[in-house]
Design a protein that fits this description.
Chains A, B: This is CASP-like protein. Chains A, B: Belongs to the Casparian strip membrane proteins (CASP) family. Two copies of one chain form a homodimer. The first copy, chain A, has 200 residues and is mainly alpha-helical. Chain A has helices at 2-11, 13-24, 28-53, 84-109, 116-149, 164-199, and strands at 56-63, 72-79. A two-stranded antiparallel ribbon of chain A has the order 1-2. The A-B interface holds A 1-2, 78, 82-85, 88, 116, 120, 123-124, 127-128, 130-132, 134-143, 145-147, 151, 153-157, 159, 181, 185, 188-189, 192-193, 196 and B 1-2, 5, 78, 82-85, 88, 116, 120, 123-124, 127-128, 130-132, 134-143, 145-147, 151, 153-157, 159, 181, 185, 188-189, 192-193, 196.
């Protein structure tokens, strides 16, 4: 038995070594897919943070003080930091975009290496980014809906009829952030599958 | 070599079989931990949905119509479905609680079996629950903060000084849902680790 095994191993020793190396090396597709997703997550959250962070609109509103006099034109401004939900939304996207850049760099440096600790750590942080981004999106969307529709029950009037550009910019930012969140969600879901494929 | 191996195998054949079975069976700790977490997720999201779904308060507010007359006492109500963010929050918790119950049952039925497809599917749904719950929490918290503090820039007045019980119930529900979300986040992060331990 020992002799047969030895003979087989000796006979294909060179090929066996190459095959073993090829199996240990992760397939290029999986690693590239992870890198592309991390790059997308970084770009989308960065864009969302910039779009909401530069959101500002000043408009002239006619206000009637006395019925007998013509309305007064008053300049009113809307800035992104006036609503705490938008501040949270920007901070969440800034954190996610910073993490996206760092994780992209670390993935590039660790390419081809199979580190269990590194894999676990990055899955934890990916999941935290999903939680952070989705809560930020939820908060910004809830305030956005209020701005568009108002709420008669609590007497919160809509503001998007006055600050249209401001609201459109918030909506664009929410869409970008939502796409970024989906990318991080994909990373959480796909990474364990990609890693198990690399191992097998 | 063959003889030595055969002798050893023959000598401990009975014990070897039992050990092999014990190795294939997952350790009780990992499976129980998953079940406890799923139960916690189910209970917390169910409690959050019930607490917000039963939130209703009617209070008497004195309104002065004419300065020379005493104020009129008007009954005003606050219900959970008056704000779309709370409706979304309740639906998110109801979905997560239903999923928690189903996944708990399926985990119990699949206990001891190592199914890759089932593991992948449940990780995807766990991650979706994290996204859903955190966006619901973000939306409810954003509206809750507005209710407590109001916002002078957009002239949205605070309402929690009038509807105190209503706001406290919303706050309790958000805390319960936040705990439930953390449980699902733990499942997403811990399950791959628990599963890889079971396999090794």
């Amino acid at each position: 038995m020992e002799g047969r095994g030895k003979a087989i191993i000796d006979g294909v020793e060179g090929n066996y070594g190459r095959d073993e190396l090829a199996m240990k090396k992760p397939p290029a597709g999986g690693g590239s897919c992870e890198l592309v997703l991390r790059f997308l997550g970084f770009v989308l959250t960065l864009a969302a943070a910039i779009v909401v962070g530069t959101d500002k609109q000043t408009t002239i509103v006619p206000i009637k003080v006395v019925d007998s006099l013509p309305p007064l034109n008053v300049a009113v401004s809307a800035k992104w930091h006036y609503l705490s939900a938008f501040v949270y939304f920007l901070v969440a996207n800034a954190i996610a975009c910073t993490y996206g850049a760092i994780s992209m760099l670390l993935t590039l440096l660790n390419r081809g290496k199979s580190k269990v600790f590194w894999g676990t750590l990055i899955t934890i942080f990916d999941a935290l980014m999903v939680a952070l981004l989705f809560s930020g999106n939820g908060a910004a969307t809830a305030i956005g809906v209020l701005g568009y529709q108002g709420n008669s029950h609590v007497r919160w009037k809509k503001v998007c009829n006055v600050f249209d550009k401001y609201c459109h910019q918030v909506a664009a930012s929410i869409i970008l952030s939502q796409l970024g969140s989906l990318v991080f969600l994909l990373l959480v879901v796909l990474l364990p599958i990609l890693r198990s494929r690399r191992r097998s």
